[in-house]
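Fill in residues.
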């Protein structure tokens, strides 16, 4: 493994040494020093975000607002959630709820839940609306930065948009986590506003604890793969539902000899991802507009086909199609992996209810159902053989809270303690 790849796989915790500078540090990215800041468990202020050519520029007031939101969420997780849990557990010992709805009724009796929920909902709305507003205000500058980043023929060739593409209905109609207009917002040629807003909101939602480039899931996935299957050397990787490419870039860096095909429905997201990757010096990714339910045949023969935090935003039917598509596009002996939050079945009622907040109040239409599913069963139905299916845990964010009181609480639904579900395709 190259030193650069090894650096990308270094564990990320508050006590770790600062991250080494990324491979592109010699490029004209004067602001990259932020990437070398140690990552702590306290919220990281906006100014520590990793810089690149198409990053949203926030005014000092906007930065202060985002930082205030992250501190509000930190306070809620630290001070309010533990008190709620204490009362819930006392009540549940008497009422003994039998399902999540009953547990939820119990939780709602605590007036703090309503206040917690209102504050959280407001923080989500403010974060999404203000970041998108800032991105739309800068639409022309961002478009120019995108053009510049993709000016060379080599960089331009990494982006493959399809003007005839029709997005799945569920993406058109449901705007996950209150992102106004959803993922498909597209102002036409060179517009990257939706991607710029997405990265800013991602940074704010786990306040910088996923790293300066908000790529904790990608780094965790790569680190887990190398640790678990040290001889696995994927040559063709499919990243399904790549979004703004935050985690894709971490995987691409970890496997510099692989060709990564990153697929998404959103043209604005893909333009942003391509320009951002070019600006960060990442050259082994093709950004492709297509439906992950039917990955085009030309991307067949893949060694690895994965999703990172995507399945909870797909309908159940779409999830089954995605798994089938992975099976079809993998080479014999190839691997499919899916990183998600842990399923509900083995979690206590309080945690289930807290996690389920997104399904109830954060416009995550498919959230609750997906965490009730057994993804191993779904992989089996998609054609993977039972003995080749596995589950594991990955930790991507140096959770969980305040270094002065480690383990005191966590911000449910934003934790980095994820589940990875995967399967090997049978060899030829
Ligand atoms: C939570 S976001 C992206 C997460 C991304 N993998 C990351 O790690 O940052 C989910 C993405 O899946 C994409 N998506 C969902 N269903 C899709 C489909 N059927 N075809 C293509 N993209 C899809 C959405 O457009 C969105 O960008």
């Amino acid at each position: 493994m190259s030193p650069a790849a090894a650096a990308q796989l270094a564990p990320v915790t508050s006590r770790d040494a600062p991250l080494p500078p990324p491979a592109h540090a010699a490029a004209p990215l004067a602001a990259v020093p932020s990437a070398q800041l140690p990552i702590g468990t306290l919220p990281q202020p906006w100014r520590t975000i990793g810089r690149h050519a198409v990053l949203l520029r926030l005014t000092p007031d906007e930065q202060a607002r985002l930082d205030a939101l992250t501190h509000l969420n930190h306070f809620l997780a630290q001070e309010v959630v533990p008190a709620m849990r204490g009362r819930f557990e006392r009540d549940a010992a008497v009422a003994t709820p039998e399902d999540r709805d009953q547990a939820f009724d119990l939780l709602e009796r605590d007036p703090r839940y309503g206040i917690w929920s209102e504050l959280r909902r407001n923080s989500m709305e403010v974060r999404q609306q203000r970041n998108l507003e800032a991105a739309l205000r800068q639409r022309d500058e961002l478009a120019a930065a995108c053009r510049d980043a993709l000016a060379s023929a080599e960089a331009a060739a990494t982006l493959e948009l399809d003007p005839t593409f029709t997005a799945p209905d569920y993406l058109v109609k449901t705007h996950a986590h209150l992102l106004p207009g959803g993922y498909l917002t597209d102002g036409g040629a060179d517009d990257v506003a939706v991607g710029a807003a997405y990265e800013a909101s991602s940074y704010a939602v786990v306040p910088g604890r996923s790293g300066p480039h908000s790529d904790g899931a990608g780094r965790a996935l790569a680190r887990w793969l190398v640790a678990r299957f040290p001889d696995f050397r994927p040559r063709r990787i499919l990243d399904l539902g790549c979004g703004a490419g935050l985690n894709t870039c971490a995987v691409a860096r970890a496997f510099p000899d692989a060709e990564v095909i990153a697929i998404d429905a959103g043209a604005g997201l893909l333009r942003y991802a391509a320009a951002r990757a070019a600006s960060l010096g990442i050259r082994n990714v093709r950004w492709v507009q297509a439906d992950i339910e039917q990955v085009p045949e030309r991307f067949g023969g893949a060694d690895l086909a994965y999703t990172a935090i995507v399945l909870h935003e797909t309908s159940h039917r779409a999830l089954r199609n995605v798994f089938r598509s992975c099976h079809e596009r993998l080479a014999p002996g190839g691997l499919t992996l899916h990183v998600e939050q842990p399923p509900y079945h083995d979690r206590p009622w309080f945690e289930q209810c807290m996690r389920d907040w997104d399904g109830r109040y954060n416009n995550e239409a498919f959230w609750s159902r997906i965490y009730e599913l057994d993804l191993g069963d779904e992989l089996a139905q998609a054609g993977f053989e039972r003995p080749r299916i596995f589950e594991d845990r990955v930790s991507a964010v140096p959770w969980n809270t305040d270094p002065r009181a480690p383990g005191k609480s966590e911000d449910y639904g934003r934790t980095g303690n994820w589940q990875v579900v995967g399967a090997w395709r049978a060899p030829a």
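The chain has one domain: 1-11+55-428.
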